[in-house]
Amino acid sequence: MLDETPELDNPDYMLLRLGRRLRKRVGQLDEWWLYYRGRPPLPQLPKNAEAAFIDFQRKARTNFCGLIAGASVHRLLALGVTGPDGEPDDRASRWWQANRLDSRQKLVWRCSMAQSVGYMLVGPHPTRTEDNRRPSPLITPEHPSECVVEYDPETGEPLVGLKAYHNDIDGYAYARVLYDDRSFPYRSTERCSGRRLPWGPDSWVYVGDSDEGEPHDLGRMPLVEFARMPDLGEDPEPEFACVLDTQDRVNMGVLNRMAASRYSGFRQKWVRGHKFARRKDPDTGLTVVEQPFTPGPNTVWVSEGENAQFGQLDATDLTGFLKEHESDVRDMLILSQTPAYYYASDLINISADTVSALDIMHVAKVREHIAAFGEGLEEVMSLAAAQAGVSEDYTEATVRWANPQYLSPAVQADAATKLSSIGYPLDVIAEDLGETPQRVRRIAGGAAAQKLLAASLLPANPAPTAGNLPDDEGAGTGG
To answer: What is the mean pLDDT of the chain?
Structure first.
C-alpha cells in the first residue's frame, strides 16, 4: 500500500493527490470537448414531445464553439526561438525541427483553446544523441487528461508534475511523478480502463529500481503547462467558456425552427361536420378514430355529411426564428471576441479596412495568448538545452511568432518599403513580415551578397591626371 503522508517530497502522496485531481477534472474536460466537437447535450423538448423530435434534437446542434476555438488556433504560430541578441540559434532550431514543433505546437494550442490547458514534456530521446554523446531532447505534446502540475502557493512556480496514461497493449496504467531533480515511476496493480484510472492507495505499485527515484539533471520540473489565459486565482477555461449558455440557446432555437418548418411544410388540414367511424383496437382495447382523409396530389376528399367543411391553417412564418438565430450567433462572436466575418450573414464584399477593424479585439486576445505561451516555450527550450548538456539559459531567449493580424501582400509590401526608406535593416523588416529566423538569415545574407556583387561590377575610379586633380593639388603644381 502506498504511503499517504501529506508531504510534497513524498512521491506516493503526490501520485494520489495529483491523480485524484486528474480524475476530478475528467468530467469537465469531456464536457468542454463535446462542445468543441459540436456534440453538446441535446436541446430539451416538452415531456409530451413525440419520438420524432429525437431525430430533430441530434440535427439541431450547430458547432460554433469549435469555430471560436479554431479562430484563435489558426493565428497562433511560433516560428522559432532566437538567442538573447535576437540572432537565430542553430541548436534551438535543430531541436525545434527534430521534434516537429512547427506542427506539434498546434496540438497544444488546440488543447488549450478547447480544454483550457495543454502540456509539453521534455525528456531524453531514445535513439538520437548530441555531439557530446548525451541523449538529444525529446519534446512531446501532452493532453490535460493525462498530465497535471502542482504549483507553489507562495511563488506560483511549478513544484511537482504527474504524467499518467493507459497502455492499450498490456492493459495497465502507468504514471510518473516528476520533480526538478528526479522522477518516480508507478504502475497500476491491475488492468483497468483507459477512460478512468484508479486512484486508491492499493491501486498503484512503485516500479522504480531505487527508492530514491530516477535522477535527472534538468534542474527543473520537465512538464510545462500552457494554460489558456487564466484569471488571477481562478482555474483556466476554454476559449468558448463564456458562450456555453448562448450555444445551448442557439441549438434550442434551431430545434424550434426545424419543428416549425417540418410541420408547416404541409399546411395542416381541418375538417368540420364529418362523422368519423370508430373502431376498437384489439391489442390495446382503446377506441380509435379512423382517418379516411390521406393527403396526396391525386386525392379527392369526399364527405357524406350535410354541413361538412374542409380547410387548412396558414403556414408558420420562420422570419422570427431566423432573426433570433442571427442575434444569438452575433452575441456569441461578440462575447468571445471572434471576428464577425466568421459568420458572414449580411457582410458582403467587405473591404480590407473593414476586416482590419473587425479584427482588433480578436488580435488583441491572440496577442495575450502569445505572451503567455511564449514564456512556456522559453521554458521548454531551456529544458531541451539542459537535456542536451548546453549551459545556455533560453529563458532569456525570444520566441518569434507569426503576426496574428492578416494583411494583404500589397499592404505588407507598402509597409516594408516605407520602413526601408527610413533606415530599417532588411532583417528587421523580414521579421515584421513573419519570416522564420532561418529565412531571415538567408534573406539578409542574400541581400548582402547581391550588394557585394553589384559593387564589384562597378567601374574602377580613373587614375588621377593633371586634368582631373583637385583644385588645391592643381594650384600647388602650378606654383
So the answer is: 83
Return the C-alpha cell found at 151.
504549483
Between CA 451 and CA 398 the distance in angstroms is: 29
Please answer whether residues 309 and 273 qualify as being in contact, where contact means their C-beta atoms are separated by less than 8 angstroms.
yes
Residues 6+ apart with CB under 8 A from 347: 340, 341, 354
- What is the model's pLDDT at position 275? 78
pLDDT at 296: 66
Q: How many CB atoms lie within 10 A of CB 452?
A: 9
pLDDT score, position 479: 44
User: Which residues does 377 contact at the CB level (< 8 Å), separation at least 6?
Assistant: 78, 81, 105, 399
The winner for highest mean pLDDT among 236-245, 275-284, 456-465 is 236-245
Residues 6+ apart with CB under 8 A from 37: 63, 66
Q: Can you read off the three cell numbers belonging to residue 327?
A: 442575434
- The band of 205, judged by pLDDT with boundaries at 50, 70 and 90, is very high
User: Whole-angstrom Cα distance, residue 102 to residue 290?
Assistant: 69
pLDDT in tens, 363-411: 999 999 999 999 999 999 999 999 999 887 787 788 889 888 877 677 7
SS (H, E, C) the chain: CCCCCCCCCCHHHHHHHHHHHHHHHHHHHHHHHHHHCCCCCCCCCCCCCCCHHHHHHHHCCCCCHHHHHHHHHCCCCEEEEECCCCCECHHHHHHHHHCCHHHHHHHHHHHHHHHCEEEEEEEEEEEEECCCCCEEEEEEEECCCCEEEEECCCCCCEEEEEEEEECCCCCCEEEEEECCCEEEEEEECCCCCCCCCCCCCCCEEECCCCCCCEECCCCCCCEEEEECCCCCCCCCCCCCHHHHHHHHHHHHHHHHHHHHHHHHCCCCEEEECCCCCEEECCCCCCEEECCCCCCCCCCCCCCCCCCCEEEECCCCCCHHHHHHHHHHHHHHHHHCCCCHHHCCCCCCCCCHHHHHHHHHHHHHHHHHHHHHHHHHHHHHHHHHHHHHCCCCCHHHCEEEECCCCCCCHHHHHHHHHHHHHCCCCHHHHHHHCCCCHHHHHHHHHHHHHHHHHHHHCCCCCCCCCCCCCCHHHHHHHHC
- Candidates 42, 22, 61, 36; CA nearest to 115 is 36
Segment 218-224 shows an average pLDDT of 94
Give the pLDDT confidence score for residue 346 in this predicted structure. Answer: 61
Q: Could you give the CA distance from residue 242 to residue 277 in angstroms, rounded to a whole number?
A: 57
Q: Are strands 182-188 and 173-178 parallel, antiparallel or unpaired?
A: antiparallel
* Measured distance CA(41)–CA(207) in Å, rounded: 42
